[in-house]
Amino acid sequence: MRKRYLTIIVALLFVVCSGIAQQTSNQVYAISYINESHLMQRMNLLTLVDFKMEWPERLCCSDVPVLKKELCKLLFDKESTSIRQCINDFLADKGKELKSKPNSKGLKTTYVNISLSELAFQMDKYISFQLVKSVRYEESLEPFISETYLLTYDMLNDKVLRTKDILRPEFLKNSYNSRYIWELIINRYEVINAEMMLDEIPSESCLTPDGLVVNIPYSATDNEGDLLVLIPHHESYDCYRNKVKKWLRKSVVKSRNSEEVESEVIEISNMNTVDTTKVYAATPTMPEYEGGTKAMMNDIVKWINYPKYEMGRNIQGKVVVSFIVGKDGKVSSPQVISPLSPGIDREAVKAVMSLAKWTPGAFGDIKVDVKMAVPVIFKVSR
């Protein structure tokens, strides 16, 4: 039976932190983890909104505006590349923000969940996402509304791949023959019900290293809904367009040239120029974790569980998570700046966000926000 071994490289903590200002301008990869809840009210309409998103800031040395634009369009129906602007506009449409739920009678409550999850990643090649938007109306006869989207972003060619770009046209036709073929393939890997029938052919799909993930709308004798099914490449290969087959066969790809961007993290030594609205890479008094390095290491290990998928495939290595220690000592703005796999990356972020015992960085008596980073090594031993 496999056991979990985790090593936290805390000795590198301040080395990474001091180099962040230089790294930001040519950063290869950065995923921001957004986890927010808002309570909004407009007249007698109360809306509880939850955002849980793994947002791509940089991939393959690019700010990926093509990918960001597609994600904003699908999630918020906005022509934008700024996730923060989309969130702010979405919330503004829901009215003013409240700190607690009012006791007023006659309020109609709506629950909105918007999520963006990374499904697969191959360095310098592609990244795949699942997007889910759901709306539930309290005390209403209207049904639960949910929309699921899947997409793959081709990093080399700076292109978003949707189902029509991945599958051959004949497998996109909602005909009896197409549905029958899809049912044969799907039922080999996911048995829902012996009488399962597809309502329609898969309209959403994306690529992963293990195969094609498809979102299946189905109906059975006792239920109906959507299901994500992984179909190995050797089963779905004939369904792919020729250009996708060639693209998947490529084992080595070259990254696009790095694009210079202005650093968001600044480093200064003149206390007369301290700006408390900025995020700093280094300060005379750096943030310090309560109990020191050993306590931080123990707290990180306590919060991490080795994901079963990655453990089963012997996926191991280093993840680097950057974060901001605020003036109030709280941790925010987590980013994975050196990824390993979606499941392991999430565990590392979860652990870092659990570190709540910081003394903030400062210039003298002036407390400021400081950007830091923690490398975490995941190892599997038989």
Please explain how this structure is put together.
There is one protein chain. By secondary structure, this protein is α+β, with helices and mostly antiparallel strands. The protein has eleven helices and 19 strands. It has helices at 13-18, 20-24, 65-76, 83-93, 163-166, 176-187, 233-236, 242-249, 292-303, 308-312, 342-353, and strands at 3-8, 30-42, 45-58, 96-98, 108-122, 126-137, 145-154, 159-161, 197-198, 204-208, 211-219, 224-232, 279-280, 288-289, 317-325, 331-338, 358-359, 361-363, 366-381. Strands 1, 2, 3, 4, 5, 6, 7, 8, 13, 15, 16, 18 and 19 form a 13-stranded mixed sheet that branches. β18 (361-363) and β19 form a beta hairpin. α9 packs across α11 (342-353). It is globular. It starts with a strand and ends with a strand. Residues 8-25, 191-196 and 251-271 have low confidence and may be disordered.
Helix-strand makeup class? alpha+beta
The whole-number mean of residue pLDDT values reads 80
The overall strand count is 19
Rg calc: 23 Å
**What's the order of the H and E elements?**
EHHEEHHEEEEEHHEEEEHHEEHHEEHEEE
Distance from N terminus to C terminus (CA atoms, Å) equals 6 Å
Global morphology: globular
Task: Please outline the major beta sheet.
Answer: 13 strands, mixed
Low-confidence stretches: 8-25, 191-196, 251-271
Strand residue percentage: 35-45%
Level of helix content? 10-25%
> Helix count?
11
Summarize the structure in short.
The chain is of the alpha+beta class. It has helices at 13-18, 20-24, 65-76, 83-93, 163-166, 176-187, 233-236, 242-249, 292-303, 308-312, 342-353, and strands at 3-8, 30-42, 45-58, 96-98, 108-122, 126-137, 145-154, 159-161, 197-198, 204-208, 211-219, 224-232, 279-280, 288-289, 317-325, 331-338, 358-359, 361-363, 366-381.
